[in-house]
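input
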Amino acid sequence: MFFYSTGGDECTPRRTAVKQNLVKLIQFAKSHNPDYATLMSTKLLKDTSMTYDHLMTTILKAGRKDWIYHDPQKTYTFKPDLDIQIRIRPDGPNREFFVEDWTKAHAQPQANLKTFDIYYRSSIIESFNLASVDEAKAHIPLPEPGSNKISRKDYQLATQVDAANSLDSYIQRSGLKIQG
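output
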């Protein structure tokens, strides 16, 4: 099975082919020497496993069109590698709203914090927060305290979950700036 990327991990087809060949090799070895096959599978499959840096680079280089959004589950699934997901954490019973200078530029000046969890397979790898503004029409990265600056990484993460393609206009309207 091959996954072709439009902006994410360019080596995904190669990694998939390598894993498929390793599985075949391990199955063959198990039929001849089970002890050797176990040792070999542990070493070889470890060499092709996903790393944190590789995962984050893949996500940050992806584009909006690389994601499938499933509304009932509030989940974004990465098309080139279905093991990668970003899930919106459900609001708790005490959802709190806040107003900052930069949220006042919108029709609804109140914002609330949304937490997004990055999953690889069934493991949470990292979480990040975005401000849900203007009745959830956009999710904006929080600026650094006391400034109007948004980190480049936070912006790149926010673009991945910008299904409405409204992030840039909301950042501009808010008077926020993206750091180098």
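quick obs: Residues 12-47 form one domain.
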